[in-house]
Write a structure and sequence with these properties.
Blueprint (H helix, E strand, L loop, with lengths): L3 E5 L18 H4 L9 H6 L1 H16 L6 H11 L4 E5 L5 H4 L7 E3 L2 E8 L5 E3 H9 L14 E5 L8 H13 L2 E5 L10 H8 L3 E5 L12 E3 L3 H17 L1
Parallel strand pairs: 1-2, 1-7, 2-3, 7-8, 8-9
Antiparallel strand pairs: 4-5, 4-6
Helix pairs in contact: 3-6, 4-9, 7-8
InterPro entries: DHS-like_NAD/FAD-binding_dom, NAD-dep_sirtuin_deacylases, Sirtuin, Sirtuin_cat_small_dom_sf, Ssirtuin_cat_dom
Enzyme class: transferase
Protein name: protein acetyllysine N-acetyltransferase
Length: 243
C-alpha cells in the first residue's frame, strides 16, 4: 500500500485557535519582539525574557486548544488502513490528541507539553512548571540541579535533534506521497524534505494558503482552507491507496 508522509506546519493548527508565525497575521509579523521569547541566546541571558516567555506559555496553555478537522482527517487516513507518518513542525501535540498513534508522529521541533533543564537535561511536565508559575515563581528552576528550565522545544538558535531529523529523512525517502500542509516551506532543514521526497520519486502535494518555494516541484497545489481541503484530499488518497 502507498506510504503517505505528511509534513505539517502551523497552518494546520490555526483552526484550533493557535496562531501561525509567518503568515499575513502571523505572530512574528505582528510582534517582532515576541521572537526573542523563543530565541535560545536571549532566553538564557535575560531573566526578564524568561519571565515573559513563561507568561506567554501560561496564556497559550489556558486556551486548551483542541484538534480540528484536519488533525482528525490524518487520524482517519491511518484508520482506513493507509500507512501514514506525520513529520510535524508544530509543538502542540494536536496530531496525537486527534487520534493518530504517537509512534507515527515525528516532532521536528519538540513538544510544548514537556520542559527540559538546560543544565542536567532532566525532563518533566510543562503543566507542573506552569503550576509553579501560577503559584508565583516568575522563572521556575530545575528542582534537581537548579538549572534554567525551558520548554522541550527547539528554540531559534538551537539545532534539531539529529536522530529526529534522521527519522524524518528516512520517512521522506521511503514515501510514495508527500503532503506538505500549512507550512511556508521556508524553515530549514524541514523545508528541504519536500525536495528530498521528489528526488526519491514521491508525488508532492502542497496545501497552503500562500505560495511556497517548492510549488514548482509539486504535482498539485491546493490553496483552499485546510480544514476542508485536507480531509477531502486525504479521503481521495485513501481511495487511491485501496484501489
Amino acid at each position: 500500500m502507498t506510504l503517505v508522509a505528511i509534513l505539517s506546519g502551523a497552518g494546520i493548527s490555526t483552526d484550533s485557535g493557535i496562531p501561525d508565525y509567518r503568515g499575513p497575521q502571523g505572530l512574528w509579523r505582528q510582534d517582532p519582539e515576541a521572537e526573542k521569547l523563543v530565541t535560545y541566546d536571549f532566553y538564557m541571558a535575560d531573566p526578564e525574557i524568561r519571565r515573559r516567555s513563561w507568561l506567554m506559555r501560561r496564556a497559550l496553555a489556558a486556551r486548551a486548544a483542541e484538534p480540528n478537522a484536519a488533525h482528525r482527517a490524518v487520524a482517519a487516513l491511518e484508520a482506513s488502513g493507509t500507512p501514514v507518518r506525520v513529520i510535524t513542525q508544530n509543538i502542540d501535540g494536536l496530531h496525537q490528541a486527534g487520534g493518530l498513534s504517537a509512534r507515527k508522529v515525528v516532532e521536528l521541533h519538540g513538544t510544548a507539553h514537556r520542559v527540559v533543564c538546560t543544565r542536567c537535561r532532566a525532563r518533566s511536565s510543562m503543566a507542573d512548571a506552569l503550576a509553579r508559575v501560577e503559584a508565583g515563581e516568575a522563572d521556575p528552576a530545575c528542582t534537581g540541579c537548579g538549572g534554567i528550565l525551558k520548554a522541550a522545544t527547539v528554540m531559534f538558535g538551537e539545532r534539531l535533534d539529529p536522530r529526529v531529523l534522521a527519522d524524518a529523512t528516512a520517512i521522506t525517502k521511503a514515501c510514495e506521497v508527500f503532503v506538505a500542509v500549512g507550512t511556508t516551506l521556508q524553515v530549514q532543514p524541514a523545508a528541504s524534505l519536500a525536495g528530498t521526497a521528489v528526488e526519491h520519486g514521491a508525488r508532492l502535494i502542497v496545501v497552503n494558503a500562500e505560495p511556497t518555494p517548492y510549488d514548482a516541484l509539486a504535482e498539485e497545489t491546493i490553496r483552499e482552507p485546510i480544514g476542508t481541503a485536507l480531509p477531502a484530499l486525504l479521503a481521495r488518497i485513501a481511495g487511491e491507496s485501496r484501489g
